[in-house]
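Action item from last meeting closed. Structure (100 res):
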């Protein structure tokens, strides 16, 4: 096989593979970091989608607060509250609605 044929074959194998073996510690670290960032980006997208569908007017500051959050647990907490929140203040209320 010629070099272009080998390359094309390898690309086909890699592109159709369901798993990618991550062997080196460097690759595992950065692959895992990329997965976490992707999950956070998707959580931000879904949270903004839910808030928009519910008719909330999201200020630029609030949009920035949500879109710059990289904490997946926090984003999931906000997303859970976004489903039933009566106001955007309820969304960010860390007391769980229990006001003293």
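Sequence:
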């Amino acid at each position: 096989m010629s070099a272009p044929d080998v390359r094309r074959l390898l690309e086909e194998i890699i592109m159709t593979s369901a798993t990618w073996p991550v062997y080196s510690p460097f690759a595992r670290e950065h692959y895992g970091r990329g997965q976490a960032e992707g999950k956070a980006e998707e959580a931000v997208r879904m949270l903004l989608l839910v808030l928009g569908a519910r008719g909330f007017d999201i200020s630029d500051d609030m949009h920035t607060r949500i879109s710059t959050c990289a904490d997946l647990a926090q984003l999931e907490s906000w997303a859970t509250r976004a489903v039933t929140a009566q106001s955007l203040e309820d969304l960010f209320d860390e007391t769980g609605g229990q006001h003293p």
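Note appended to the action item: The mean pLDDT is 80.
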